[in-house]
């Protein structure tokens, strides 16, 4: 499909989806304990509402949203709170993060759910509030609180609710399976979002390599008007919101703007499903579907698991490992992060757990850039990755920004094609981190300067006041002495 | 397991695979060159390539860089390209000197692969042309066509390695050289061409010239391979060839007695080799599409100007070097447009502004 307005650049990595896409979603058994990090979303940590030793029920609110941009955490099974404190986080650094650890009592007993009335008869803001209370975040890996997006969207004229079913990351098939098996719920969820936003239409975008999902979604959308299932070419990163909007609407999201600036709100298929579950049944987000795949997994497939289950538990549900993995990933191979161990928990944004063999991961060493421009051609954002990396390497952060760093979506297309195997994304992440650090330092500096200024001003005032007092005293003294005969 | 940044997958491309592909693309025209010019051509090619690789190894060692970098194949390719632009019976030291200059000065002095401003092979070629004009313009007629007997392997060795060997009986002029000389003798271009230049012969490589500029058809075959393998993109060669054809056409309409016309210009003097294999060198050519088109067109203009008004009949080397110097400028001036921004880098206008009243609540 050649469209002048379509996505520029992009790459075609091997999809590796066949094996896990062929099998139905299976329910994982209940783990002995669940580990629920307080931050599984973009934004501030959630604030614990329970203490060690407390009994909790499945679905019970155990940590409240910290700020406006945050999300609450719910117990994903019933049991007793064992501890609240640092655990190994699903992050490449292996650093600890605060979490609530619940020992399962095996009963998996639900709390009484607040069953809502017909959501279509309720006010949009009330529904958005419910989504917020359910702790739903972007489940395609973006982990931005869904309700914040809905509330922001409600302040704009939204033409299109874009349901993102493109799932362009290799290996991952959660959205594919979800669309095949739960098409009606997804359509229902999309219509609820449409209702919240008063949007004109719904577009469900699916890559052309998922014909069964396309058929299922078409069938489910059939009874309703204003729902289109659009087939997009298979291209990485089609699933990136900006690229998908460009493909579907022909518009580009203005730099430094949001999707809402072009009248679109994008939600991933998994998020839409979770929203439907929350609005129809009052269920908070406590479980999700995860693709467990890679050459080291005995039988790769999609597993529905409670949030907080250790990664190892999911691997066991797929027959275990056949081999020591060369790389263990959370998410897909293009944007996923390495996992420090299999003991880390599955979080809300975990799309996949991949145990890759040596031949599946790139391991060549970096060599100098030959300026072949492949990275430039592959970049879906129209940036100059080679320049960005060159500048980032020498800590020229402003230069890197000028070459495009501020618009980089870290999709990795550039590094994927680089014949010199330059870890471009690593340079970008480094530069972005450095920028953040400097900004924070600057803010801190400003703050200290402010404090200093205030202190100096105060001191000066005090000195002045003292001097004035002294002068006054003196003058008083002299005047008294003068007046004294 | 060391933490490593995403992406964890890779397309599987590599620098040496790219260089290998270019070398593969050069095999057909090089082999025909060997056939046309016999053993001395093969010897010259061999010493030139070997000298390039050896120089690279020595330089890497001196600079304290990993010596296995030589395996990326870039030095071999540079040597090969130099060999292709030399008169096929040039003495060995021409090839060795060229490679030495190209790799040591033209590449490693700049900081190695990817860092050089100028195409090393063209730097060597132009340097040699200025330093050794005689050796660099002693062309050989294609042996089988001129009815000449091949020197045998031993005789060939003497031609390449014994500078005093006389080769008078074999020499001939290139089409460009002939045109230039004849024009100064007040002959008209059409007459000269009618006498000396048959474009299809030129296309098949059946006239005097360097190894790489003779068999144009096989250069095109190699070019097709490079395009198909996506080693090079079309912009530079197409812009170069079209511009050159256009200039030549206009000139021959304006001044038919002095000007040779597009077919002549395109099929002689290594223009095709230059357009597809040399101007497209990624290191020394620009990045964005517009810049590439301008780069190609610029090469063509310089080629044309040098050929028509310049002192040297050979122009491709000058043209490429000249445009190489402009590459950083072109790169700065023509960046691709960034998603969500205008060409000038400002954010695109917002099309859907905030609505003030929605759902009965003010925001
Ligand atoms: S793909 Fe790699 S080698 Fe090619 S220009 Fe980009 S950074 Fe340089
Ligand atoms: S990671 Fe950034 S620079 Fe690289 S292709 Fe993606 S958007 Fe472009």
Give keywords.
heterodimer, A: 485 residues, alpha/beta, Rossmann fold, Fumarate Reductase Iron-sulfur Protein, Chain B, domain 2, 6-stranded mixed beta sheet, 4-stranded antiparallel beta sheet, 35% helix, B: 363 residues, mainly alpha, 2 domains, two-stranded antiparallel ribbon, two-stranded antiparallel sheet, 2% strand, disordered C terminus, binds iron/sulfur cluster
Commentary on this structure:
The complex is a heterodimer of chains A (485) and B (363). By secondary structure, chain A is of the alpha/beta class. Helices cover 35% and strands 17% of the residues of chain A. Chain A is built from 14 helices and 17 strands. Chain A has helices at 18-22, 124-133, 146-154, 174-181, 183-197, 211-221, 241-249, 269-281, 311-317, 374-378, 385-393, 397-402, 413-417, 424-483, and strands at residues 26-27, 33-37, 47-48, 55-56, 61-64, 73-74, 79-88, 96-104, 160-165, 201-207, 227-232, 264-268, 287-293, 301-306, 327-330, 337-338, 352-356. In chain A, α4 packs parallel to α6. The longest helix of chain A is centred in the C-terminal third of the chain and has 60 residues, at 424-483. Chain A is globular. Chain A starts with 17 loop residues before the first helix and ends with a helix. The model of chain A is unreliable at 480-485 (pLDDT under 50). In chain B, the strands form two sheets. In chain B, strands 1-2 form a two-stranded antiparallel ribbon. Chain B has a two-stranded antiparallel ribbon with strand order 3-4. Chain B is mainly α and 363 residues long. In chain B, α4 (120-131) runs antiparallel to α17 (316-333), α8 packs antiparallel against α9 and α13 (235-254) packs parallel to α16. Chain B has 17 helices and four strands. Chain B starts with 14 loop residues before the first helix and ends with a strand. The longest helix of chain B has 48 residues, at 15-62. In chain B, 60% of the residues lie in helices and 2% in strands. Chain B has helices at residues 15-62, 74-85, 92-105, 120-131, 133-136, 143-146, 153-161, 175-184, 189-196, 199-204, 211-214, 216-228, 235-254, 262-267, 271-278, 289-309, 316-333; strands spanning 139-140, 171-172, 357-358, 361-362. The interface between A and B is large, with 78 and 47 residues. One iron/sulfur cluster binds at residues 378-379, 381, 383, 385, 408-414, 424-425 of chain A.
